[in-house]
TrEMBL record:
Organism of this sequence: Hymenobacter persicinus
Name this protein carries in UniProt: Aminopeptidase N
Annotated keywords: Aminopeptidase, Hydrolase, Metal-binding, Metalloprotease, Protease, Signal, Zinc
Catalysed reaction, written as an equation: Release of an N-terminal amino acid, Xaa-|-Yaa- from a peptide, amide or arylamide. Xaa is preferably Ala, but may be most amino acids including Pro (slow action). When a terminal hydrophobic residue is followed by a prolyl residue, the two may be released as an intact Xaa-Pro dipeptide
Family note: Belongs to the peptidase M1 family.
Known EC number: 3.4.11.2
Gene Ontology CC annotations of this record: cytoplasm; extracellular space; membrane
Keyword Zinc: yes
Cofactors demanded by this protein: Zn(2+)
Uppermost EC category: hydrolase
InterPro entries: Aminopeptidase_N-like_N (IPR045357), Aminopeptidase_N-like_N_sf (IPR042097), ARM-like (IPR011989), ARM-type_fold (IPR016024), Peptidase_M1 (IPR001930), Peptidase_M1_aminopeptidases (IPR050344), Peptidase_M1_dom (IPR014782), Peptidase_M4/M1_CTD_sf (IPR027268)
């Protein structure tokens, strides 16, 4: 699974964007991340232990003690599921008939217990020899307990047939920040009353929501083959796991499609999708590779998904295990509750990421491509071999996350891979400010807590370190062993460790223990001196060793002696909290670079002079070394040597280096002012990468009281939405009469990025003319963008007469009270909060919203808003 926005938990996906890239987006409003991370209390508290009376400082990131969450006990093996389903779109019901083939796992059983949430059970029958008989059962709307006709042993398979009605909309509201709903089955625009979106139906099973639409044993350590017969109106296309084995027209104008998957997979990976899709066909080694999109995006489907066969080939060869499943389809759906989901042979993706126009592709192809790689790699790690419990989720998600780096490395080179490494490390370190958990967590409050930047970004970085430690050949040979030995089964972390140990011959308990089983990360301070032909390198581990280990860190240190262009590499192993290493060199070094490969998952503070950092930039062997020099020196941009470095970097072959250098000139006041501005104008107009052009526009807007209207006017006509948005954001701070008409002409755009920027512009410069625009376009804003949009709407209304804003206030209040997405609720609340000084009753309204809010994170965020 790939999630998108985790709202006030601060987990906003920024796949494949460098840190400076994100600055292109407006930072005007406080982000939901900041709202929840901001502390009004001390970051640590003191606890006195009775035994010694010693005071232990408990860090704020230490999570509460949660209950142990063991792997589900397997009483019965689920072998096969056959479903016959049809739908009542008006009632949003599913009428189902399920034939389950099961057997006791080990001990004899005289009952069968199934997960079945919120059903109307019509009948339960035992099936044998072509005959059926009723069975007694009890049902509490969660568990269906069936009394069998006699005890059965582990050598005996048996079948039960259950007739039922699933009513997902009548279930108690569920979901989490990562997966925003847990009702399993979703009818989109079921009555067709919303003319802006198609009628669709789709399912989402992870974590344990498949049992909201069919009876099953809804645990990740079960595996079953399956067959699903879907009866739908004739105009709809269907998709499910496996192959379409028959399609029959019925006399009532409907059609029944039968999809069969002959290889076993976990129940949470079962899926259906129904809608008026266009199906774009591709192929790989004789297997069907299909892309399901809305018809108007048929023309760009190959541009978005077209690398899939190449990915199938690359991953199959790299792992030494050919893609094992019958086919591979990908479907874009509306209103998806996460980012994407790796249903076996039929991945579901949120349409905003993959239904792109040619103009969208200029800016967004990186997001789609990373997601496509991520979900495909799950078909080995997650589908072929499945985590036996949610505690072991990183065995699924860390690998899928790491596939994004592997694909970037293969397709676009080492710098692109390093950019992925940088951004994902940043994602984890941001989350680690507020929580630090072991990767493999046997204690958690709720299953969905596992879907965080630890399981994804941290886990991917741990795998990268493991790869660097054992070497590429051993890494991929170990993965092949793991997949081959555990295929079509459930796994746990020990099996991965054993696969690596059997391959390499080395005991790797130390690595798996410190990185998978313990929380936190190293916090390092690096310093060095040169004396008598040797470098004395000091490495200090500063992390709190009460709650975090002292790490064993194999790492490379590169030393450039004198003016040599190529360094000498030293392999060292850090094992102590404070450790000195002696490195022999021929002369005083120009640069000593710790972790030269940028592989460590760590927070590193490394002492270097300005001259050393300049040397590092000009002699860098990878993107991360260049970026680090730029980032470390940007505060000294007034120095001629530093500004010269940045100007050099603005012509670097790799776009992210150019972008970082362009950002480094924000508010530049040095002696090369005219030359720098001229160079920024050139970049804004001509750089081939839209992210760099957009950053140049944003950087120019940082020069206060200077007129760059000509640049902004040109940027408003750019082919990239990102660049146009940057121009609108710049004009929001420095509006000009000559550009207002051009900005207004963009009001009917379908680009979420432009709608975001327009709302920012109008929040500062809009009039009553834009009031109706805010109300009308609100329905066109993806949930990801609504947080800021709603706040901007509130700021616009501050300038309107009270009598003219009632409808807007009512809309914001309804969203703040009832929207299922907590980030949207927070944005609406903040929008209303803007009106407090000018609306007599608003304080009481906000107090009432706070008092009735049930979400703890949201209540905490409200408490920080003044």
């Amino acid at each position: 699974m790939k999630y998108s926005v985790l709202g006030i938990f601060g987990l906003v996906l920024t796949c494949h964007l460098s840190a400076p890239a994100q600055a292109v987006k407006s930072a005007k409003s406080t982000s939901p991340k900041a709202a929840i991370h901001k502390k009004s209390t001390p970051v640590a508290e003191s606890v006195t232990t009775p035994s010694s009376a010693a005071t232990i400082i408990v860090p704020s990131w230490l999570p509460p003690t949660n209950p142990v969450q063991p792997t589900a006990t397997t009483v019965t093996d689920l072998l096969d599921t056959k479903l016959e389903v049809k739908f009542d779109w008006a009632k949003q019901w599913l009428f189902g008939n399920a034939l389950l083939t099961v057997r006791p796992h080990f001990y004899p059983q005289n009952q069968l217990v199934l997960d079945a949430k919120g059903f109307d059970i019509k009948s339960v029958r035992f099936v044998a020899g072509g005959k059926e008989k009723n069975l007694n059962y009890t049902y509490d709307k969660r568990k269906l307990t069936i009394t069998l006709d006699r005890p059965y042993t582990r050598a005996e398979q048996y079948q039960v047939r259950i007739s039922y009605v699933a009513k997902p909309n009548e279930l108690e509201a569920g979901g989490s920040a990562a997966i925003t709903s847990s009702k399993g089955l979703y009818f989109i625009n079921p009555l067709g009353t919303d003319k802006t979106k198609p009628k669709q139906l789709w399912t989402q099973g992870e974590t344990e929501a498949s049992s909201c639409w069919f009876p099953t044993i809804d645990k990740p350590n079960q595996r079953m083959t399956q067959e699903i017969a879907m009866t739908v109106d004739a105009q709809y296309k269907t998709l499910s796991n496996g192959l379409l084995i028959s399609s029959k027209k019925n006399s009532d104008g409907t059609r029944t499609d039968v999809w069969k998957q002959s290889l076993p997979a976990a129940p949470y990976l079962t899926m259906m999708a129904v809608g008026e899709f266009a199906v774009v066909n591709d192929t790989w080694r004789g297997k069907a590779v299909d892309y399901y999109v809305e018809p108007k995006f048929q023309g760009t489907a190959k541009a978005v998904f077209g690398n899939t066969p190449q990915m199938l080939d690359f991953f199959s060869k790299k792992l030494g295990v050919e893609f094992p499943w019958e086919k591979y389809s990908q479907v874009a759906v509306r209103d998806f509750v996460s980012g994407a989901m790796e249903n076996t042979t039929a991945t579901t993706l949120r349409q905003e990421w993959v239904q792109l126009t040619p103009r969208d592709l200029i800016d967004q192809s990186y997001l789609a491509e990373g997601t496509i790689a991520h979900e495909l790699f799950h078909h080995w790690f997650g589908d072929y071999v499945t985590s036996e419990s949610w505690s072991n989720l990183p065995l699924n998600e860390s690998f899928a996350d790491y596939s994004e780096l592997l694909w970037a490395e293969h397709k676009y080179g080492a710098d692109a891979a390093a950019l992925v490494q940088q951004q994902k490390l940043s994602n984890y370190l941001t989350e680690a400010e507020s929580k630090r958990e072991p990767l493999i967590r046997y204690h958690y409050a709720a299953r969905e807590d596992m879907f965080d930047r630890h399981s994804y970004d941290k886990g991917g970085r741990v795998l990268h370190m493991l790869r660097k430690y054992v070497g590429d050949d051993a890494f991929f040979a170990s993965l092949n062993r793991y997949l081959t030995q555990n295929k079509f089964s459930a796994s746990e972390i020990a099996k991965l460790r054993i696969a690596f140990e059997e391959t390499t011959g080395e005991d790797l308990m130390w690595f798996f223990d410190q990185w998978f089983m313990q929380r936190g990360h190293p916090e390092l301070h690096i310093s060095h001196t040169y004396v008598n032909g040797q470098v004395n390198l000091r490495v200090e581990q500063l992390q709190d060793s009460t709650f975090t280990p002292i790490y064993r860190l194999p790492v490379t240190v590169s030393v450039w002696s004198g003016s040599q262009s190529q360094p000498t590499d030293f392999k060292i192993v850090v094992t102590k909290a404070n450790q000195m290493f002696t490195l022999p060199v021929s002369q005083r070094p120009s640069l000593v670079k710790f972790d030269a490969e940028g592989q460590l998952l760590a927070k590193i503070e490394e002492e270097r002079s300005q001259d050393e950092l300049l040397f590092q930039y000009y002699h860098a062997r990878n993107y991360l070394q260049k970026y680090e020099a730029i980032e470390q020196l940007h505060s000294k941009v007034g120095d001629l040597a530093v500004s010269g470095m940045l100007r050099n970097a603005m012509n670097d072959p790799f776009w992210a280096v150019r972008q970082a250098a362009t950002e480094g000139f924000r508010r530049y006041k040095g002696p090369e002012g005219n030359a720098v501005r001229k160079e920024l104008k050139r970049v804004a107009a001509t750089d081939k990468k839209s992210q760099v052009r957009a950053m140049a526009v944003t950087t120019l807007s940082s020069f206060l009281n200077e007129d760059f209207g000509d640049v902004y006017s040109t940027a408003l006509k750019d082919s990239s939405y990102l660049v146009v948005g940057a121009a609108i954001d710049a004009l929001a701070k420095a509006p000009t009469v000559s550009t207002r008409e051009a900005v207004n002409a963009l009001q009917e755009t379908n680009s979420p990025a432009l709608l975001h920027s327009l709302s920012n512009y109008y929040s500062l410069n809009g009039t009553a003319d834009q009031y109706q625009w805010f109300l009308r376009r609100m329905n066109d804003i993806p949930e990801d963008e609504l947080y800021t949009y709603l706040q901007n709407f509130g700021l616009l209304m501050v300038r309107l007469p009270p009598v003219e804003r009632d409808k807007g206030i009512q809309r914001l209040e309804a969203l703040a009270r009832t929207h299922p997405n907590i980030t949207v609720r927070l944005g609406a609340y903040r929008g209303l909060n803007s009106l407090v000084p000018s609306t007599a009753t608003m304080k009481a309204t906000l107090q009432d919203i706070r008092s009735k809010e049930k979400n703890d994170q949201l209540k905490a965020a409200y408490s920080l808003i003044q």
